[in-house]
Amino acid sequence: LASRDVKQDDTVIRFPGTDAVIGGGHHIAIVAGPCSIETREQAFAIADKVAAAGAQFFRGGAFKPRTSPYAFQGLGLEGLQIMAEIRERTGMRIITEAIDAETLEMVVEYADVIQIGARNMQNFSLLKKAGKTRKPVLVKRGMSATLDEFLMAAEYVMSEGNYQVILCERGIRTFADHTRNTLDLSIVPAVQRLSHLPILVDPSHGTGKRNKVVPLARAAVAVGADGIMVEVHHEPEKALSDGPQSIYPEQFETMMNELEQIAKVL
Ligand code: PEP
Ligand code: MN
Question: Which residues form the DAHP synthetase I/KDSA domain (predicted)?
């Protein structure tokens, strides 16, 4: 179902009531926001800035898949409610992660796009459950997933009747240790050759380092990605998760202008 042999034209995902579009190659979708929703004040401060700079989608984690069980796990339901308020106020559509069957039900109620994280890319029961919903599903590439495995994760969602799948490259584990992960931009044209599904690039988790996020975002647009997902924080030194890779709202604004210039020449 994910294959171009079955469907030649690009899948385009629209969001009724907005001009937000993901896929189709004519539009760069911008997903921005903090790693985690920490407080109402924090989330609104960031949301207002990224909306003003032109983001169509707001991201923020309410359920966080943290490496340590003692690290901040997210605000849960309260985080979802804050994001719903942000949608009302800014018009941005909401993308947030479900980490299991239980949180999936809550995410479906509040969000516009269900995110399946890298660590769950081969959680086949969760993928099938997301496939039973009728909300778009963003599947992040597992940190050791091949192209084939990545596409099969999308296939799991689609096999249950949900064809609104968005792929997201977020970096893979390699021997290179100058970045948190190695952002594999070559997967963008590879996906586009084999599949009609849209693909976004996340240079934040892809590099783990603030000073590398904007250059890789530019490269992602240049290579033909359908959009980017980027972590933004107004006080990254105080962030409860992923502060070192979160860019400042001012950097985000400059980046948006640069991405527009790059998209123009494509
Ligand atoms: C995230 O987007 O905040 C996240 C946890 O990403 P990943 O699943 O790619 O690590
Ligand atoms: Mn993060």
Answer: 19-264
